[in-house]
């Protein structure tokens, strides 16, 4: 599904070049559940943003189901993102001026889903995450945990082929966190959703097939937790 070749990310001014990622080679099969781990500043979130087509590499090649993302114009990348990728951000990234209902509905608008179908899908997500009573509130009126649940619902509503999750349970209590991890595991196992998560938790990493450890922008080590051998088929 994903192939990264020599992906490097750096920022530079007149005098210095600061590297965030260095020569990342990575392959992800369709249906894998991968965890990215490493200390703060290792490049985990940057890698996730490049995979999610929200940022671009300074050097290297990125293929998504054999489509060369690194040669695409921004409009093409945005369309590919909206059609295939869900993203759970560590800082939620909810739209302040929109209600919970409207935030969850937004990905369906990008996919041009009909209004009647949107209504049913949003209602299902509100019920699944027990936030029906919050649907008319704005993000500023929610607790951190409620904002995170809204962000998870928004990411999952399109049933993305690829789900990217940056500390998806970081702002949830232990019970909510366990429920989210069980849900992600079920989506991966039963529906074949490809998932890449960033976490500091070894317990949450154990839900996946493989752990990739970053250090100072390099892939330091990979650990295979289970075997995955699924192929990628574009719709």
Name a few traits of the molecule.
single chain, 235 residues, alpha/beta, Rossmann fold, six-stranded mixed beta sheet, four-stranded antiparallel beta sheet, 7 helices, 34% helix, 27% strand, globular, disordered C terminus
Detail the topology: elements first, then pairings:
Layout: E1 2-12, E2 17-28, E3 33-37, H1 44-51, E4 59-64, E5 67-68, H2 74-84, E6 85-88, H3 100-110, H4 115-128, H5 144-156, E7 162-166, H6 174-191, E8 194-198, H7 202-205, E9 210-215, E10 218-224
Parallel strand pairs: 3-8, 3-9, 6-7, 7-8
Antiparallel strand pairs: 1-2, 1-4, 4-5, 9-10
Task: Give a written overview of the molecule.
The chain is 34% helix and 27% strand. It has helices at 44-51, 74-84, 100-110, 115-128, 144-156, 174-191, 202-205; strands at 2-12, 17-28, 33-37, 59-64, 67-68, 85-88, 162-166, 194-198, 210-215, 218-224. The strands form 2 sheets. Strands 6-7-8-3-9-10 form a 6-stranded mixed sheet, sandwiched between helices. A hairpin with a 4-residue loop joins strand 1 and strand 2. Mean pLDDT is 92; it is low at 228-235.
Can you describe this structure in just a few lines?
The protein is built from 7 helices and 10 strands. It has helices spanning 44-51, 74-84, 100-110, 115-128, 144-156, 174-191, 202-205; strands spanning 2-12, 17-28, 33-37, 59-64, 67-68, 85-88, 162-166, 194-198, 210-215, 218-224.
